[in-house]
Design brief:
Largest sheet: none
Distance between the termini: 56 Å
CATH superfamily: Hydantoin permease
GO cellular component, one term: plasma membrane
Radius of gyration: 22 Å
InterPro entries: CodB
CATH class: Mainly Alpha
GO molecular function: cytosine transmembrane transporter activity
Keywords: Membrane, Transmembrane, Transmembrane helix
Order of helices and strands: HHHHHHHHHHHHHHHHHHHHH
Structural class: mainly alpha
Number of strands: 0
CATH topology: Hydantoin permease
Protein name: Purine-cytosine permease
Helix content: over 70%
Length: about 475
């Protein structure tokens, strides 16, 4: 990544972190689509990838399901960013939060901010867990297993608390510090994923594409405690892994700086460097571990081998692996804690950025003590998108269909209200109905994310038509 690209990325992120929060971005601050490539490549080759890749292997996926399913699912994600998020962003040039405030009213947006902040904290906590698995190697720390939910020892607790404290303090220094560090480290992390994949291929004695394909072959039974993933599980999950960002419209805050909507294509750098190459590379290092006598003994006793990223990377590329895992977890947790702090600050505006970030970091550190957030990351990411994505449907459906349905856009602002009940009713009904269906009929949660999103958008237009007339 050139110095020019790094500077452009930093400029976008710094502005996104604090300027033009309640006004459209001026023309002088707009950037071309090339400026977004490095940002997305760096952001999506991160700590989560070290967990998600191995977790895919525990679900017994076949080669076709994984390789072709990820290719299609990530393409759908890119299309969502390009034709929904970027399209709306360049028309309005507003942050997600201000756009929602105009539609929903300040009181309802407060509830959204609270949910968003808490979920950000849990995600950051899982990344603290990731870093802890690497830091704990020199201390012979007992690693969390796939089924662990509680802290497994005092060493684990001390390491997690120490990492959480450092990350929180750095995040509290502001987005400038956070973004600069992440942008300089992202090439090292990407290199680490490539190195892990290449070395793992050698350890697995892969000499041809057929050898590579046979690592997964026709699939297998899922590990104890996991469900079986099919082709459509992979496609739909990878599509909505960042559902809150694209169909949930969170990345309006980023793409409002784009000159044209075609900047949305830049997300392909994140999807195919991070969510394709990095996930498969991380799966390969787990495939190496599964062949060890230790892992085979665990499977023989009907126990799932650990997916702790630290030891997996260390066994593949040594000390460099520990460094990459620490950096990957750190560069994901840091901006996530900062964003959680901003969400909390919208609720508690009298508190300084420093203190709300420390609060967010504390919540994230406590969450990091519990390995379940990282070990169940596939489920957590699906739930995260399922909760927040429908709010994006409100923005999308209003943007494209308000005029056709005779609905007033930005109704809360126009009517001078602080609580738009049309939004709450649309979200609550769609969320409640499809969550009930998912639980009652044991349907994979990601399968109902799109129906929930569509229903929420339709209900919002219907309720708006009714209540706005009154």
């Amino acid at each position: 990544m050139s110095q020019t690209n790094i500077n452009e990325i930093q400029e976008i992120e710094e502005i996104a972190g604090g300027e033009f929060e309640r006004e459209p971005v001026p023309q002088s601050k707009l950037k071309s689509w090339k400026s977004f490539i490095g940002m997305y490549a760096g952001e999506h080759a991160a700590g989560t990838e070290f967990v998600i890749g191995p977790l895919f292997l525990t679900t017994g996926v076949s080669a076709f399901d994984l390789i072709i399913g990820l290719m299609l699912g990530n393409l759908l994600a890119v299309l969502s960013w390009r034709f929904l998020t970027a399209e709306v962003a360049v028309k309005n040039r507003l942050t997600l939060y201000y756009q929602l405030e105009k539609i929903c009213g300040k009181k309802l947006v407060t509830g959204y901010n609270l949910a968003n902040g808490i979920l950000f904290c849990f995600l950051a906590g899982s990344m603290i867990t990731v870093s802890a698995t690497a830091v704990g190697i020199p201390f012979n720390m007992e690693m969390p297993t796939l089924t662990d939910t509680m802290p497994n020892g005092m060493t684990w607790i001390v390491i997690v608390l120490a990492i959480g404290a450092v990350i929180s303090l750095i995040a509290s220094k502001g987005y400038d510090t956070v973004s600069k560090a992440a942008n300089w480290m992202s090439p090292v992390i990407v290199l680490g994923f490539v190195a892990c994949g290449v070395v793992a291929l050698g350890q697995l004695e892969v000499h041809s594409f057929s050898d590579f394909w046979n690592i997964w072959g026709e699939g297998s039974e899922p590990f104890p405690g996991q469900i079986k993933y099919t082709f459509w599980h992979i496609v739909i999950w990878s599509w909505f892994a960042n559902g809150a960002m694209h169909i949930g419209m969170s990345d309006l805050s980023v793409f409002r700086f784009a000159k044209e909507a075609k900047a949305g294509w830049a997300t392909a750098a994140g999807m195919y460097v991070g969510h394709y190459m990095a996930w498969i590379a991380a799966a390969l290092i787990y495939a190496v571990y599964i062949k060890t006598p230790e892992a085979q003994a665990l499977l023989g006793n009907n126990l799932a081998p650990s997916v702790a990223p630290g030891p997996l990377a260390y066994n593949t590329i040594g000390i460099f692996g520990i460094l990459v895992v620490v950096l990957a977890g750190w560069t994901t947790a840091n901006p996530t804690i900062y964003r959680a702090g901003l969400a909390f600050q919208a609720i508690m505006p009298k508190l300084s950025t420093f203190w709300v970030t420390i609060i967010a970091g504390t919540v994230a550190t406590v969450a990091g003590l519990f390995p379940a957030f990282a070990m169940k990351l596939l489920d957590f990411v699906a739930f995260y998108g399922f909760i927040l994505a429908p709010f994006g449907a409100v923005i999308v459906f209003e943007h494209f269909f308000a005029k056709k349905f005779g609905v007033t856009k930005n109704y809360a602002e126009v009517a001078g209200i602080k609580f738009n009940k049309s939004v709450l009713l649309a979200w609550a009904i769609s969320f409640g109905l499809f969550y009930f269906i998912s639980v009652k009929f044991d349907i994979f949660l990601s399968f109902v994310t799109l129906p929930t999103w569509i229903l929420c958008g339709i209900l919002y237009l219907v309720f708006s038509k009714v209540f706005q007339k009154k």
